[in-house]
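Notes continue from the previous slide.

Worked example: a multi-chain complex. Inputs as given:
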Amino acid sequence: KQEVTQIPAALSVPEGENLVLNCSFTDSAIYNLQWFRQDPGKGLTSLLLIQSSQREQTSGRLNASLDKSSGRSTLYIAASQPGDSATYLCAVRPNSGYALNFGKGTSLLVTP
Amino acid sequence: SAVISQKPSRDICQRGTSLTIQCQVDSQVTMMFWYRQQPGQSLTLIATANQGSEATYESGFVIDKFPISRPNLTFSTLTVSNMSPEDSSIYLCSVAPRLGNTIYFGEGSWLTVV
């Protein structure tokens, strides 16, 4: 059974800092990996998707990397802003099917 | 992309009652899913909603408790039956569009059972 772990569980940084969120998974037989953002009491917003054959994806200040063989992904946020405060979830999709396996998330607080 | 509308967004329900959550997508999608997020926890897949046939449930979830319908390629409902306080959660509809690999989520339906 796929296990997805996210470290740290919570993170507080001052505005302007660059930061890295970590995601690890136990089964490397994945189709892709997706990073989401969740604001309190809200649904999920897709941030980045990395196919299993890719090494990284970038969108604005966000960069996600994938090392499938070691079962790791990182989400890099550059020049953090208070508006980045949210919970960030990592989810892997298996080779067969569409159901996502989620980590428990990293709760990020960016202070002004 | 896909725009997903869920109703209700929030509700407070009495113990023992049932509530149906609706999920409407702005385009035809291949797959629709229902997830649950209990307080402080991550998302857990309840079932895959299959168009024109019975839903496929994950371990620990049964049709009597969570009946699901999917009459067409843009709409699905999830009913939470005979609710107890343990059912207080956010219920999220998720879709896989026909093109692309990104999975999209609705805003969620936040249920509190009292």
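Summary box: Chain A has a mean pLDDT of 95. The radius of gyration of chain A is 13 Å.
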